[in-house]
Amino acid sequence: MSSNNSSPTIWKGDLPKIGIRPTIDGRLGGVRESLEDQTMNLAKTVAELIASNVRYPNGDPVECVISESCIGGVAEAAECDALFRRENVGVSLTVTPCWCYGSETMDMDPLRPKAVFGFNGTERPGAVYLAAVLAGHTQKGIPAFGIYGRDVQEAGTSTMPADVTAKILDFARCGLAAALMKGKAYLSMGGTSMGIAGSMLNYDFWEKWLGMRVEDIDMSEFIGRMNKGQYDAAEYEKALAWVKENCPEGKDYNSDDTKRSREQLDSEWEDCVKMVLIARDLMVGNPKLAEMGLKEQAQGHQAIASGFQGQRQWTDHFPNGDFMEAILNTSFDWNGKRTPYIVATENDGLNAATMLFGHLLTNTGQVFADLRTYWSPDAVASACDGYQLDGVAADGLLHLINSGPATLDGTGQQKDADGNPTMKPFWDITDEEVDACLKATTWHPSITEYFPGGGMSSRFATLGGMPATMTRINLVSGLGPALQIAEGYTVELPKNVHDTLDLRTNPTWPTTWFAPIVTGRGAFTSTYDVMNSWGANHCVMTAGHVGHLFITLASILRIPVYMHNVAGERVFRPSAWNAFGTDNIESADFRACENFGPLYGRA
């Protein structure tokens, strides 16, 4: 079910597929013949499992390509590889119920994320092949994930155990995320914002670790297109009418001396809508522009993520990017429900990359925020007439808030199957949930002292009870990128308590109260320690406890994780990581990533 609205997208055409490699004992004369049907049927079962559960960002089921024959030796391995290259296979999953010749049947492509599923049955030694071929992958420096069920099964069974299913789907989602990034671009709209290190873009990171390029434009491109009318005028009128109907303007928190006139605010609204159209067109292109004779502008930059510098060279003179960033990061707009465009505030490319990870792993909108404040229970009680935090917030709260408004999905108005707040892929969002997200959000004239050029900023408070994961990629001199992860829950405070705390900072920005799960160890000894150990001023929040997916994707790309609270049994990395230590697996992760180097690294 792909999007049927008219929003331009690059998630179309020949998207990367997942390749299934059925390997088999190559000995003809009775052995191979007895295994052909069982092996190919296993491949078909796995392909159906993946296609039924994993989707592209546009909502279509992921396509699987099965080798045209079972692979019993190097000739058939080469034929399968040729098929995979013709079919744009970006992820490889080898499956077998039996012994096979390891080095002759393995996938040797070093850039294709890969896993091997060895069926746990006593009739044939599928586990023996799994161990042998994984040893070959480790020895040859081509890491692969090993998938092996806990319980012995009957030969030929079509039932897939829950533990095997979970690992296959986790690998498929993470491998696909890596494949979807390859060859795409990050669009830097502007440059460094207010000295923020994350907006000092590092091309090596994007190219060597993610397989992407960085495209650069100056923010003057916006005002140029606005002045020349280089946007779809009909869509602009449609968008402006939708905004007037669905984006209620809230209180103006500016002082009387700094309030802007009604005429000025109306003009800012118009410019804000134009900025949305222009930023989107710059990212992914727009065939409407070609119809207007703007064939170069119509192409876009093949960007699956972007950042807008804004402050201060733009915002001192023109409306800020708050409305633009909020709407583009949301799973719907005036054209209906659609996949979010990933846009980072202040051109923080590292937060953009983290948002991109979360989006590709879950197909949902992502919350961009400052990790603004740690509120201890005592501090909350002191500020709020003795109010006592309890439940998941008993150890204190982290205030996620920022001048770059988060996705409107972050209101928490979308509900999971049990009625709990969440953020969903666009194809699962109901019309009622779209309406609820819009009604939960108010738009306020930006604070003039911060933004002399004006603009409209959003305000909402995320509903409590949402399982969520907070993440951030940081760059470390001499090390490269490293990832932080904190699973936890959103918290809903009584209105008077929320208002008291929220008004201590800028009230025109959206707020999420987040309580990480503390473990009593390391950076998760307490909520304060999570705040104190965070590596930057920004973070990303993704719906769900999906830290394990971030860990798996990071290992595919060779990005070490230096802070997480994911239970050990949920951590899934390539089998080669075991060779770097099995006791302190956080340290082993660093050694493995350093040893193998970035996925697309060049000497």
From TrEMBL:
The protein's annotated pathway: Carbohydrate degradation; L-fucose degradation; L-lactaldehyde and glycerone phosphate from L-fucose: step 1/3
Domain L-fucose isomerase C-terminal: 400-564
Annotated active site: 346, 370
Reactions performed catalytically: L-fucose = L-fuculose
Coiled coil: none
Keyword annotations from UniProtKB, A to Z: Carbohydrate metabolism, Cytoplasm, Fucose metabolism, Isomerase, Manganese, Metal-binding
Pfam families to which the protein is assigned, alphabetical: Fucose_iso_C, Fucose_iso_N1, Fucose_iso_N2
Molecular-function GO term, any one: L-fucose isomerase activity
EC number: 5.3.1.25
Family annotation (HAMAP family): Fucose_iso
Family that this chain belongs to: Belongs to the L-fucose isomerase family.
Protein name: L-fucose isomerase
Organism ancestry: Bacteria, Pseudomonadati, Planctomycetota, Planctomycetia, Pirellulales
